[in-house]
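Field guide to reading this record: the first block holds the primary sequence, the second block holds the structure written as discrete tokens, and the final block holds curator observations. Each block starts with its own label. This record concerns Oligosaccharide repeat unit polymerase, catalogued under organism Companilactobacillus bobalius DSM 19674.

BLOCK 1 — SEQUENCE
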Amino acid sequence: MGYLLIFFICIIIFIVFIRRDLTHPLIYFLIPWVLCLLTYVLDIYRINGQINQEALNLVIIGTLSFILGTVLIRKTLVGAFRINNSGSAFPTTYRNWLIKLIIVFSTVFNIMLVVIMINYLRSGISYAYIRDLLYSYNDDGTKFFTSKLMLNVYNIVDVPMTYCVAPVAVIELFHGRLKLQYKVMSWISIGAYIIATGGRLIIMFMLFQFIFAMGYYRKDIPWKTIRRVGMFVLVLGIVAFVTTLFRVKSQSVGSLKINSVYAYFNVNLPILSRWIGTVDTSGVKGNGLAFFGGIFQLLDVILNKFGINLPVYENVANLINIPQQNWVQIYSGNWYNAFDTMFYDLYIDFRIWGVFIGSLILGGLSKWIYVLSTEFKNEKYVFPAMILVEILASSFFRWQFGTFTFTGAFLLSFFMFKNLKSNETNGSEDLR
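BLOCK 2 — STRUCTURE
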């Protein structure tokens, strides 16, 4: 694994420092995996004995297959399928009504989440336990939402919209198009979401999206914008630190003290090792249902409202949810869940072939969007590219297309920019 780590570092150095490209999908896929493999090589807390060779093989096959997928997609191939094959893309603008709707709805709903969270705090429930309620980690049946409808709105509407608001907020720092009140509301929405959920993942996503936006808009960035972005990165870091402090749960006497940042990138291989054996013994094969899990998750929710079940998908979903619902002791007295990597879901579909094919498709899709947005300079594909940044950056954590959260956000992102026809460029609509 040490050689794989060096190989990944060389790829990142080549893209960032030699090609000077901050928008390439390999950067956002490989950086988290470099950190994961670095913790594996260091093995500070001596947990490598919990990692089996099968899990290591999945990581090797999956990461190399993703790289192969990006290599196979070339600019000439993408260009052959473009509708507009002229030298430059049409000018673009926001689909203004949609952007504003997303910002307003997510702001209102996320503030409501904070109000619910504060009420729980006032009743004496700890912040860490409130988060368990929201993600259904608790065992006593208590729920964060008293209404199933509110839970569905949160999962199907609010969270995908919030993950679309994040790139809007980032882009507005570099290439402002919205009125000040909508910019402020976008940050309120994100801040309320972080406070209510204790989530740090969206902070990592936005840090990566800052890097992407700097690479995409670098020719238009004045020094004052760089300073503003720098200050905001500092604020995000402080927020991440504070939420980490409040999320800490009580530990039993004798529990090993663990660096939480190190553990964040260190627990995925033991968890993957723990559960792939369960997949093997289950006899369940997803046959693509795990790969397209986000779509089937929504379909299952809708059909259940009419009393219709999808037993084939639900068997796969139950297997997918095992790492989410069960905690594994990685370090003495320290238990973790969920971090099963994207390869766990792909393994459910077609076992090792699922990991190879699924990673290859994701790599090809990422490169295709990259070519359209960066090499063909079509800003319409910037939002899909930035949502893919979120998906790639969390590949060490889970297969995000297995949830409707990111599937919905990705599909929605294609409608947030629109191309202006050539006869409209001289009189585009007022975006403010």
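BLOCK 3 — OBSERVATIONS
The longest strand covers residues 328-331.
The two ends are 52 Å apart (CA to CA).
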